[in-house]
Amino acid sequence: MAGMKHARAALKAVFGYDDFRSGQAEVIEAVLKGEDVLAVMPTGSGKSICYQLPAQLDGGLTVVVSPLIALMRDQVQQMAAVGIEAASLNSSNSEDEGRTVFRRMMNGELRLLFVSPERLAGTSLAERLAEAGVRRLAIDEAHCVSQWGHDFRPEYRQLARVRALLGGVQTIALTATADATTRADIASALFPKPPHVVVQSFDRPNLGLRFEAKDRPSDQIEEVVARHSRSSGIVYASSRARTETLAAALTRKGHRALAYHAGMSAEERARNQDVFLQEDGVVMAATVAFGMGINKPDVRFVVHADMPAGIEAYYQEIGRAGRDGLPAETLTLYGLDDMALRRRQIDERDAGEERRRIEHRRLSAMIDLCEVATCRRQSLLAYFGEESGPCGRCDLCSGHAVLEDATVAAQKVLSAVARTGQRFGAGHLADLLRGEATDTIKRHGHDALKTFGAGKDMTRRAWMTVVRQLYAAGVLTEADAEHGGFALTERGGEVLRGRETLKLRVAPEPTARRPRSGRGSARDDLDSDTSPLFEHLRALRLTLAREEGVAAYVVFSDRTLIEMAQQRPSTLEEMGLVQGVGAAKLKRYGDVFLQAIADFRG
User: Fold this and answer.
1) Cα Rg of the chain (Å, integer)
2) What is the pLDDT of residues 499-544, one digit of tens each?
3) For residue 413, is it within any domain?
4) What residue stretches are annotated with the Helicase ATP-binding domain (predicted)?
5) Fewer CB in a 10 Å sphere around the end CB: N or C, the chain?
6) Who contacts 185 (Cβ-Cβ below 8 Å, separation ≥6)?
């Protein structure tokens, strides 16, 4: 049996990495000992190496359950680039391709076989795999197994039966997001006895966390995209129509933007996803139908145009940025309409009372993260049961957000809600408190109310912010699911009567939009000397990738190109010391990149 000494040597020789990332060594050591493993490791921590390296070390066939055809194809290409024999079985295979894969499998030529959970659920394939002598089963995106997870897929629930058909082979389950309840459900569904569990820190220090209340959202989104104008990013939206609107708006602004949602044809979705995966500088405006298993390491930003449904989904989605460990930006926009919509979706869902209770708890945690006044990262990690101090880098740490006693302001809002019949929305309430005699105010006679003009000392925007925070805090509730408006909750009555005080976050006044950056994403490791060479190498990478029909990052990652630009290797030996340059890639690309560096006159 291969040991960790051999594993470290293979890590460098095959993948070009000097050492394991946090958590990888523990998982690989357990795998090499033959243990079942459940690993919860954040996106970008290198989960795939935890089954790729053992498969190369100890031979035999590892079957990898993968959720997307595009991801399977990318991983097969990546394995070919580093010299590991791999193939995939999915609906895109022709008959000849399928026969070739089966022949290689039965001849013992493959180390890795990527299969969809739907395909693997069929008894005939499992029997063929058992005949081929499968050594282990690796389940990617394992949170899909759990009925309590945010992305439950029933076909994943069949994998325990598949494991039995394969003779009870060693099984590795990997995911980036799983709270304690979800982990317990995964373990009980997949493993006959408790597995070796590895739970790594959920902290992604390279991700900048920023939340903003919606205020001209198209401008807020375009500001982020413009700052990363030569880099790839994702903009998530809550509806199909909104993805197309966003993609069209960004295209008009001069960005290369595409849409992705379940209402598009399979061919159009595949085409847009391929462009995003294979090229630089592409923005994907998408619903959450896009992203699971996306293996692109150099996504520089993720924007949520609408508030996510829960923290697990939010964490999974922002995790698609900065997988290469370089700085990446995230922005989440949210508003009252988002909060009300998400609550209605839960209440209208055909699910049991226990399921709705859990979903409401998760939504409340998401709303709390939007409105929290302390460190954003600290609050996020606390949700996953991880203690930490203030990060000093998120928007709240940088902006010094504070809580202040807002009981009087809250009482003015609550009084306005009560006096107007508990059926009007935030805009009407703000106008009333500001003393704005709008047509609607006059038509309802609200200019004669005691609360008319009681809040002239605050801006309309500030009152809208107070209303949003009162709703988020459960002091107000939606009066009517169809027509909207607000009503007092029991807690709201307590605050109105002075029986409870209330602190709210101080609402900052809007500032000027950040200026556009003259170049793409800012990279802290590049300066005026290295940046031109990096861009030169990046262009070469894209040319090679197009010639070979693979994604650009399959050739080399941005991180590897940055190190080349910094170190400027002049020999193959020096090139082999660059992170991410293993033996196979050195042989295939070493000379051409050395020549590009030598010829560059930036």
Assistant:
1) 27
2) 999 888 875 555 555 544 433 454 556 777 888 999 999 999 999 9
3) yes
4) 28-196
5) N
6) 145, 146, 147, 148, 149
Token reading at 583? 């033996």
Residues 145 and 242 in one domain: no
Here the CATH number for the domain that contains residue 536 is 1.10.150.80
Sign of torsion over alpha carbons 160, 127, 292, 308: negative
Checking if the pLDDT of 122 tops 70, the result is: yes
CA distances from 358 to 143, 180, 331, 408 (A): 16, 13, 26, 33
Mean residue pLDDT of the chain comes to: 89
> Torsion angle of alpha carbons 573, 577, 583, 584, nearest 10°?
-100
336: nearest Cα among 307, 361, 365, 303: 307
**Quick check: 107 pLDDT over 60?**
yes
The phi and psi torsions of 525 (rounded to 5 degrees) equal -85, -5
- The count of domains in the chain is 4
Q: Strand 37-40 and strand 207-213: pairing?
A: unpaired
pLDDT in tens, 463-505: 988 998 898 888 998 887 666 789 999 999 999 999 999 888 8
- All residues at 6 or more sequence positions from 363 whose CB lies less than 8 Å from its CB, including other chains: 309, 310, 342, 343, 346
Residues 501, 558: one domain? Answer: no
Q: Note whether 183 and 216 are same-domain residues.
A: no
Q: What interhelical angle do 407-419 and 460-472 show, nearest 10?
A: 90
Q: Residue 247 belongs to what domain range?
A: 207-372+382-394
CA distance 142 to 500: 44
Reduced to 3 states, what is the DSSP secondary structure of residue 455?
Answer: coil
Residue 219 included in any domain: yes
Contact 87, 114 (CB under 8 A): yes
pLDDT for 50-98, tens place per residue? Answer: 999 999 998 889 999 987 777 888 889 999 999 999 999 988 888 899 8
Count the neighbouring beta carbons within 10 Å of the beta carbon of residue 278: 19
pLDDT of residue 434: 95
Give SS3 for 592: helix
Name beta bridge partners: 419: none
User: Does residue 158 share a domain with residue 72?
Assistant: yes
Would you say residue 338 has pLDDT above 60? yes
- pLDDT in the model for residue 374: 81
Specify whether 152 is located in the same domain as 103. Answer: yes
Burial (CB count within 10 angstroms: exposed 0-12, middle 13-18, buried 19+), residue 404: exposed
| Residue 465 tokens, joined | 């912010």
Tens digits of residue pLDDT in 188-235: 999 999 999 999 988 999 999 999 999 889 999 999 999 998 899 999
Q: What is the pLDDT of residue 515?
A: 46
299-304/403-405 β-pairing: unpaired
pLDDT in tens, 269-328: 889 988 998 888 999 999 987 866 577 889 999 999 999 989 988 998 999 999 888 999
Query: How far apart (Å, rounded) are the C-alpha atoms in residues 448 and 431?
Result: 13
CA distances from 319 to 75, 143, 216, 239, 296 (A): 18, 15, 26, 21, 11
If you write DSSP's letter for every residue of 88-155 in order, what string do you get?
A: EESTT--HHHHHHHHHHHHTT--SEEEE-HHHHTSHHHHHHHHHHTEEEEEESSGGGG-TTSTT--GG
Task: Confirm whether pTM is higher than 0.90.
Answer: no
